[in-house]
Amino acid sequence: MTVSVVLVDDEAMVRAGLRMVLSGEPDIEVVGEASDGLEALDLVARTRPDVVLMDVRMPRMDGLAAARRLVAEHPGSKVVVLTTFDEDEHVAAALRAGVSGFLLKVSPPEQLVEAVRTVAAGGGLLDPAVTLRVIAAFAHRPGEGDGPDRTAELASLTGRETDVLRLLAGGLTNTQIAARLYLGEATVKTHLSRVLMKLGLTSRVQAVVFAYESGLVRPGETAGGGDDSGVCRTP
User: Which candidate, 63, 34, 66, places its Cα nearest to that of 47?
Assistant: First the structure.
């Protein structure tokens, strides 16, 4: 099955580099390019790609505004935001909007390819260099209180579902969660599906955001036993 991809970046050389990397994969096809958010909206409406690789800073309509529109209007097209280290605020807002992943522009080619495949398969992915640093930064910013009151929503989860959510937010993959809780991977996936349904979330990435906003996981805490593969990768 071929994964169709749209590239959105205002720099032609960046788009050319992304296309060169992805076009070398037999199961990935770049079906279009756009240089700003407005072009991206039109292009996605026409091509209905599986994945959209979206830059943040662009003229006319930036990537964050375009990502919000795409998530709402074209849920079948998963958005991966291409970010840099100085865009934490953009990443935080896009996380809440429901994008499926984040990748640093300096990431190696193999990580870009893996991100496209992971997101197209229904998973989520945060670059390991962005993951906990970004979520911790926006979930409990000084002077802004503790964020939305998620107490009642958190209470709707069973003890096992809460355990799974905590470990997901702490950086563990499905395989690692299963090992930690002595469960099968299929059972872990079932618990995660129920977590998303009960909390009204659309992605694993949003589940991580919820875990921080609810106080289930605090900045600086880790679940332990994770690797550097990224918070939200589905094996």
Answer: 34
Token reading at 95: 């996380």
The answer to whether residues 45 and 125 belong to one domain is yes
Our count of domains for the chain comes to 2
89 and 172 inside one domain? no
Range of the domain at 163: 143-214
Rounded CA-CA distance 33/36 in Å is 9
- Residue 191 has, within 13 A of its CA and on its CB side, a CA count of 22
Q: Are 176 and 204 within one domain?
A: yes
Q: Which of 119, 132, 221, 227 is nearest to 179 (CA)?
A: 227
* Whether 91 and 165 share a structural domain: no
Closest CA to 50 of 7, 11, 83: 7
Tens digits of residue pLDDT in 164-197 = 999 888 767 788 899 999 999 899 989 998 998 9
Do residues 119 and 6 touch, judged by C-beta distance below 8 A?
Answer: no
Kindly report the pTM of this predicted structure: 0.69
